[in-house]
Q: What sequence folds into this?
């Protein structure tokens, strides 16, 4: 991996995106999105993850984040992806209401077959490419991009109306995940 895509400085803010393999719309059910929310909250409390902004879309997750230095960001992201991958596949397997169960599991199984590090299922695409946000301008553009994703996708009319995003916090409300505001 190039040095350009490594989160080497724990004092900096990074923009990352996690995408589901083949950009499949896996986050169409609340219980799947809640697994991500719970996992992010755990990483905040137990691993030192600092979240500045976030948004869960139907097939990807955007984050502006950093660490308190307790653990390297790469380790936190690795653990997050591994845990959520297993949890989400299990949730899909156990969901009697999931009409796309066989198709989703087949897709994740096919993705794993082409990977040396995944055994049975691969949920997430392999990379997350952290991009360091080195200026206030970059941070503000990133914040706007993250929060406008559901508006551009036609899910909501205003960013702060989207439950699975930090836009509510930046509009003065209380969202699902505790955030640290960008200055």
A:
């Amino acid at each position: 991996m190039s040095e350009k895509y490594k989160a080497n400085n724990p004092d900096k803010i990074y923009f990352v995106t996690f995408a589901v393999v083949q950009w499949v719309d896996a986050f169409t059910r609340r219980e799947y999105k809640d697994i991500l929310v719970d996992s992010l909250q755990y990483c905040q409390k137990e691993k030192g993850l600092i979240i500045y902004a976030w948004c869960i879309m139907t097939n990807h997750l955007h984050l502006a984040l950093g660490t308190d230095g307790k653990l390297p960001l790469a380790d936190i992201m690795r653990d997050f992806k591994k845990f959520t991958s297993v949890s989400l596949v299990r949730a899909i397997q156990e969901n009697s209401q999931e009409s796309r169960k066989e198709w989703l599991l087949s897709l994740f199984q096919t993705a794993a077959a082409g990977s040396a590090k995944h055994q049975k299922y691969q949920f997430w695409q392999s990379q997350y490419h952290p991009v360091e946000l080195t200026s206030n301008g970059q941070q503000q553009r990133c914040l706007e991009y993250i929060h406008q994703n559901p508006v551009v996708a036609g899910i909501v009319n205003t960013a702060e109306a989207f439950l699975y995003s930090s836009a509510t916090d930046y509009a003065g409300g209380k969202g699902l995940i505790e955030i640290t505001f960008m200055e």
Remarks:
- The chain has a mean pLDDT of 92.
- Residues 4 and 110 are 30 Å apart (CA to CA).
- The chain has five helices and four strands.
- The domain at 3-170 is CATH 3.30.70.1290 (Alpha-Beta Plaits).
